[in-house]
Design brief:
The chain is an all-alpha fold. It contains six helices and no strands. Helix 3 runs antiparallel to helix 4, helix 3 packs across helix 6 and helix 4 packs across helix 5.
Length: about 120
């Protein structure tokens, strides 16, 4: 499990029971579903659907789910590495960074789908 995600789960232990928090990582979405959600979020960013803050929050949450799904499934790819890198960032992405990341993620996830 990535260190940044581990910190997230440790933080959850303060607001939920330790049993629930320690098991939460096991509830990752299946990788194909997490990938599809990341594609949807990336397309929303590119098409600038919705408000900027809502779009950014959705994008980050879907990237976090993708990173978590990659970790739990043991899958390693460029898309997983990018998702992990974004999930571990301490600062918000600018709209320009979100656009560039979305385009890259779509390319990488397209390559991932083509390889299956």
């Amino acid at each position: 499990m990535h260190r940044c995600l581990l910190l997230l789960f440790v933080g959850m232990a303060y607001t939920t029971s330790s049993v629930v928090a320690s098991q939460s990582w096991k509830r990752a979405l299946p990788l194909p579903e997490a990938s599809q959600e990341a594609v949807t979020a990336a397309n929303a960013v590119i098409n600038q659907s919705g408000r900027k803050n809502a779009c950014a929050a959705s994008f980050f949450n879907d990237i976090l789910r993708l990173s978590n799904s990659c970790d739990v499934s043991g899958h390693s790819s460029s898309a997983c590495e990018l998702a992990s890198e974004i999930a571990c960032q301490e600062s918000e992405l600018s709209m320009g960074e979100m656009l560039a990341t979305s385009e890259t993620l779509l390319d990488l996830l397209g390559d991932l789908e083509a390889s299956h």
